[in-house]
Specification:
six-stranded parallel β-sheet, alpha/beta, 294 residues, 12 strands
Length: 294
């Protein structure tokens, strides 16, 4: 039976000098035979929500996608009155216990659904999100800020400290999904409508972020990890962690792990994958799904 999925994302694949991994995550889910993608909800992080929404509409038009609806989310932190929130709540109520939500941008829309319906987390099957840090994040020797949680830290706290069915793919785990341009040549040259459209976008993005990786042509497919963790969890090591409920931590996206001293009411138990243990299989799955995006 197909898994029913809603993707909450900040898709900027196609926006100049903006990240591409949300679009690639969508393509993986859309092409996967075991996924029923019910809709996408647009949030902010990589860029403003209105940019994300307009870009996603254009992407659908370019690729001829007509079977996945797009919903506008809140434009600012804690802006919970939106079509995206209404869609999330409505879907969870119509199909209780059946829907997996993947959230790979700010958590504004997810927090909005929980605010509108305090039983929202009990009605979804699972929530998988990308974001957060367990320790300072360095890329090529430079300290990088966390984005997805910190950009709307109060919404992030609502979600992370209250959801009982939560998995978090942190920067420490997802940074393993790094690609050099030479490793991507076969994918970039696939004979498919999607790759014909995506190739110049990917090549431009790789060039634009060269300095971040010491002028080596690479990029990290951060968000894709959520989708592959959903379809192939065996490719990751994981462990339940007791995350401390401290609002201040979300200002930097820091997931503080309890050392055993906190009361149960002061933590939320969260599934946190720590590492991709088979990157070769991970990549093979990614390339297989991209090749099916005709």
């Amino acid at each position: 039976m197909k898994q029913k999925v809603i993707l909450d994302f900040d898709n900027t694949m196609g926006v100049r000098k903006s990240d591409v991994d949300d679009g690639l995550t969508f393509a993986y889910l859309y092409a996967h035979d075991d996924i029923d993608l019910l809709g996408v909800t647009c949030t902010f992080a990589n860029n403003a929500q209105h940019v994300v929404y307009a870009n996603t509409v254009q992407m659908w038009e370019d690729l001829g996608i007509t079977d996945v609806p797009i919903y506008k989310g809140g434009r600012f932190p804690e802006s919970y009155d939106s079509d995206a929130v209404d869609f999330l709540v409505k879907s969870a109520n119509e199909q209780p216990g059946e829907i997996v939500v993947l959230a790979i941008g700010s958590l504004c829309n997810i927090a909005g659904a929980y605010t509108k319906d305090p039983d929202f987390f009990k009605k979804i099957k699972r929530l998988i999100i990308m974001g957060g840090i367990l320790e300072p994040l360095y890329l090529n020797g430079s300290l990088n800020k966390e984005l997805n949680f910190s950009v709307d830290y109060k919404s992030a706290a609502k979600v992370i400290y209250n959801c009982p069915c939560l998995s978090i793919l942190t920067a420490q785990c997802t940074q393993d999904a790094a690609y050099k341009i030479e490793d991507l040549e076969a994918m970039l040259n696939m004979d498919s409508k999607f790759m014909t459209w995506a190739k110049p976008i990917l090549e431009s993005w790789i060039i634009s972020i060269n300095s971040l990786y010491g002028n080596r042509k690479v990029f990290i497919n951060w968000d894709l990890c959520t989708a592959i963790y959903l379809t192939n969890p065996e490719l990751f090591t994981t462990e339940n962690k007791r995350v401390c409920k401290k609002l201040e931590n979300m200002k930097t996206g820091w997931l503080e792990i309890d050392d055993g001293q906190a009361d149960d009411s002061e933590v939320n138990v969260v599934d946190i994958p720590s590492k991709i243990i088979d990157l070769e299989k991970f990549n093979a799955l990614f390339y297989e799904m991209i090749s099916k995006m005709k």
